[in-house]
Amino acid sequence: MEGSSCKADSFSNVSLRPLDVSDIDDFMVWATDEKVTRFCTWEPYTNKEDGIKFITHYVIPHPWFRAICLDSKPIGSISVTPNSGNFRCRGELGYALAWKYWGKGIMTQAVKIVANTIFSEWPHLERLEALVDIENMGSQRVLEKAGFNREGTLRKYIFLKGRCRDLAIFSLLSTDPKE
Ligand SMILES: CC(C)(COP(=O)(O)OP(=O)(O)OC[C@H]1O[C@@H](n2cnc3c(N)ncnc32)[C@H](O)[C@@H]1OP(=O)(O)O)[C@@H](O)C(=O)NCCC(=O)NCCS
Predict the structure, then answer these.
(1) Ligand 1 mean position, distance from CA 84 (Å)
(2) pTM over 0.85
(3) Which domain holds residue 48?
(4) Atom 17, ligand 1: which residue's CA is nearest?
(5) Which InterPro entries match (predicted)?
(6) Is 157 inside any structural domain?
(7) What is the pLDDT of residues 59-74, one digit of tens each?
(8) 98 band by pLDDT with thresholds 50, 70 and 90
(9) Atom of ligand 1 nearest to the CA of 98
(10) Most exposed of 27, 109, 131, 141 (fewest Cβ within 10 Å)?
């Protein structure tokens, strides 16, 4: 984790917007970094073409995928993936931030923005949830700071990067207090 003298409680220049193919060079900064993908379900990207395919075929059609921007420059991403049928009341939160910007409160701010907008954008959504590797302390802390409830541990829940892992499950309900 990179040290920081400036926490982002004060960053008014953090914003969310759709990520587009024209953002490919910024996307490649975090998407190629093993430090960033360590706890993610995906492997680091190794070439621009695959990055462009991902943005074209996954990000753009995705119902809620946003670039996290600092002064309009994408430095990470955050998404809410919906469910359908009986599970449509819940959506799953995912996020990643370029390493250079870790430890400044930026993801906490981005998650709070999502928490404050997604339930009005999607009135059918009652629960926003996040599944986090038990060893990913920074991500668990982000969710706590953004007001999520830790509900427990899903033991040996996913096989990822060579071994089976325990995940912590967090949720925020539409009726929970928001900051
Ligand atoms: C996890 C991640 C999103 C955090 O983003 P960030 O902008 O650095 O988070 P914030 O600065 O808002 O908050 C991080 C908090 O975790 C704490 N933290 C970080 N690493 C920690 C560690 N190893 N142990 C304990 N606390 C830790 C920080 O001190 C801070 O808490 P504080 O404000 O109480 O001091 C970022 O590191 C990242 O993108 N990681 C790679 C992708 C990823 O893991 N995504 C999540 C998949 S579920």
Answers:
(1) 30
(2) yes
(3) 8-129
(4) 138
(5) Acyl_CoA_acyltransferase, GNAT_dom
(6) no
(7) 999 999 999 999 999 9
(8) very high
(9) 39
(10) 141
